[in-house]
Amino acid sequence: MPPVDLDIARLGEEMEAYGDRLRSVMERLCAAGEISRGVTPREVVYREDKLTLYRYLPDPSAKVDLNPVPLLMVYALVNRPYVTDLQADRSMIRQLLDAGQPVYLIDWGYPDSADRFLTLDDYVNGYIDRCVDRLCQEHDVEQVNLLGICQGGVLSLCYGALHPERVRNLVTMVTPVDFKTPDNMLSAWVQHLDVDLLVDTEGNIPGELLNWTFLSLKPFSLGGRKYVDTLERLQDDEALANFLRMEQWIFDSPDQAGEAFRQFIKQFYQQNGLIRGEVELGGQRVELERIRCPLLNIYAEKDHLVPPAASTALRGRTGSSDYSELAFPVGHIGIYVSARAQSQVPQAVGAWLNER
Amino acid sequence: MGEGGVFGEDWLTAQRQFWERLSAASSSGEADAEAESAASAAVDPWQAVLDQWWRQLQPDTPLLVREMLERMLAQGRQLFQLAELFTRAGQEESETFDWDGAIQKTFSDLRGIIAGITGSMNPVPEAMLSEQVTENSEAYLKRLFDLPGLSLGHRGQAQQRELVRRMLDYQRARRAYERLFLDLGQTAVRRLQKEVSEMDGRNERIGSAQQLYALWSSTCESVYTEQAMSESYVRLYAELINSQMAVKQQMRIMMDDALRLIGMPGSRDFRNLEQRAHQDRQSIKALQEALARAESAVRGDFPASPPRKGGKASKRRGGKGATG
């Protein structure tokens, strides 16, 4: 018998069953109303240009002792930060609140042509610094805890190196430090890109371009097989709403401020400047050794966007004498939305912060 | 819409008929033209009903749902096209089986993604970049390249020629990039054949369309991943984006020239304004910070001197850069 043993009668049945599932999903998808996102109550504490700084409100019935040091979450400039508070059972923010952290989140908004000349200096020494100011003022403290996710982790490392006196503890999550590890496909692709020409021509970089680029890292899984494999799992309304919510997030990509994008690709990806101590922001060199606060580096073992080696390169590069790592057997997104990570990562972060 | 929901009983009947015809075509053992034709005529009632239903539904569906459904439909089609291809292959001599067709169908999604990457910034319609069109237009553009520009000054002629040169570069880069995917498809087929023969050795079987699709897509992905990390791919990718940007840049230069001729602002003017607005915004922020420091100093919070760049150890309870 040949290994591919497709029986016509069985195929017919399979097709019928698949059609039924597809029909059911389609009908319910069409009937699905607005997909809600963001579940934890929050309030605006600061606005500047497109940026909004949110304070997340703990559950008053939870009676958790809050850490006196506020936790500022810095998300990447690509994609939207609401993935950290997607739904009740997938909310890193809620879990962090439950773990006793006063959580604040920077929402970068959607840059437009008015933001085309924003630089990484503006983001790090401007926006983040003013958010830190605001939190210190609100909590009457001298320092904050920083949690940077992906590119937000890179910005947080830069901030920690340039303003070490303002950071009590630093947590980086799926954050690239060595941008030229041999398994980094994204990095390989941009090495010969004429980023000056790209930015000079496009101005801001379309979010759609970045999105397609991310999808094309694993086109058969992310653009194809996912839609076949998930069909079976989408047979109840809740699973369907969850899937739609994730889809909405995946394709919700803000444009990138042109100058900041130019700097990020050239200094970080092409020159690998962070690990070499050659990145310059606002005329100052970013030296990782200047980071002396306790550091928790969390990475995903199956991350195809930021390979583990790109993150673990941080080990031994800072001046911190309290450096820890936490690895999870999930992918880049799974680290903050998978059920497994949800039940462990925020609690681990909370416990680590509370001990310091 | 029939009583059985979106698809109804008619669809189920048509689908059964399709498989019966395909089965008849297959069981005849050789190229039975009549049965083959009967099966082809009925090909994809599944797709036909889906497409018809989809056309009716499309205008009223929210964009997010519409896009997601389109992806699901596309993958559903591919799943069964693949199964159908392999079913036919099982009945045919391997030399006559249309592997090229199989490759094209499987890699069409990948091409869609590539079109997504380049299309999001494309200066010319995608249709103009197909192999046939570019081959035809290359000769035309080369001839145009040699012609003196009528009614154009020296600068105008030079600009036109530069645009043509960049267009040709872009077309070449695009073709080279697409060719790479054809090679990829062929490598994927060879890899799949190897995987299947290894399964045979392990006494494993693929008995469903979904299992076959899973094996096929993971094979394609692994081949793609290997190739996409290679130096040649990285070069082609960069050439594709760089040449596309070069065309776009030249088009903008020419558009700016034309706008200037009629006294209209061009992209450079807008860019200057954006830069000016950015500088003004920075100045306002610096002033707001200085004001906040001065206010704090009056309150006695901390000295009014500006903090050193990048180091704000002495700064507290200030920095009202914006609304709070």
Please give the domain count of chain A. 1
Radius of gyration of chain A: 21 Å
Order of helices and strands of chain B: HHHHHHHHHH
Low-confidence segments of chain B:
1-6, 308-324
Second-tier CATH architecture of chain A: 3-Layer(aba) Sandwich
| Number of DSSP E strands of chain B | 0
Identify the CATH class of chain A: Alpha Beta
The CATH homologous superfamily of chain A corresponds to Alpha/Beta hydrolase fold, catalytic domain
* Class by alpha and beta content of chain B: mainly alpha
**Percent of residues of chain A in beta strands?**
15-25%
User: How would you characterize the largest beta sheet of chain A?
Assistant: 8 strands, mixed
- Evaluate the radius of gyration of chain B: 30 Å
Which chains make the largest contact?
A-B, 92 and 100 residues
Helix percentage range of chain A? 40-55%
Give the topology string of chain A: H per helix, E per strand: HEEEEEHEHEHEHHHHHHHEEEHEHHH
Give the low-pLDDT segments of chain A.
none
Oligomeric state of the chains present here:
heterodimer
Gross geometry of chain A? globular
Strand order of the largest sheet of chain A: 1-2-6-3-7-8-11-12
Q: Report the span from N to C terminus of chain B.
A: 55 Å
Average pLDDT of chain B works out at 71
What would you say this structure looks like, in words?
The complex is a heterodimer of chains A (356) and B (324). Chain A has 356 residues and is an alpha/beta fold. Chain A has one domain: Rossmann fold, CATH 3.40.50. Chain A has 15 helices and twelve strands. Chain A has helices at residues 8-31, 92-98, 120-139, 151-162, 185-190, 195-202, 207-215, 219-229, 237-250, 258-270, 273-276, 308-312, 334-337, 339-342, 345-354, and strands at residues 42-48, 51-56, 71-74, 85-87, 90-91, 103-107, 144-149, 167-173, 280-281, 284-285, 295-300, 323-328. In chain A, strands 1-2-6-3-7-8-11-12 form an eight-stranded mixed beta sheet, with helices on both faces. A two-stranded antiparallel sheet of chain A has the order 4-5. In chain A, a hairpin with a 2-residue loop joins strand 4 (85-87) and strand 5. Chain A is globular and about 70 Å long. The mean pLDDT of chain A is 91. By secondary structure, chain B is an all-alpha fold. Chain B has three domains: 1-92, no CATH class; 98-264, no CATH class; 269-300. Chain B contains ten helices and no strands. In chain B, helix 4 (63-91) crosses helix 8 (209-228). The longest helix of chain B has 48 residues, at 154-201. The radius of gyration of chain B is 30 Å and the shape is extended. At the A-B interface, helix 1, strand 1, helix 3, helix 5 and helix 6 of A face helix 1, helix 3, helix 4, helix 5 and helix 7 of B.
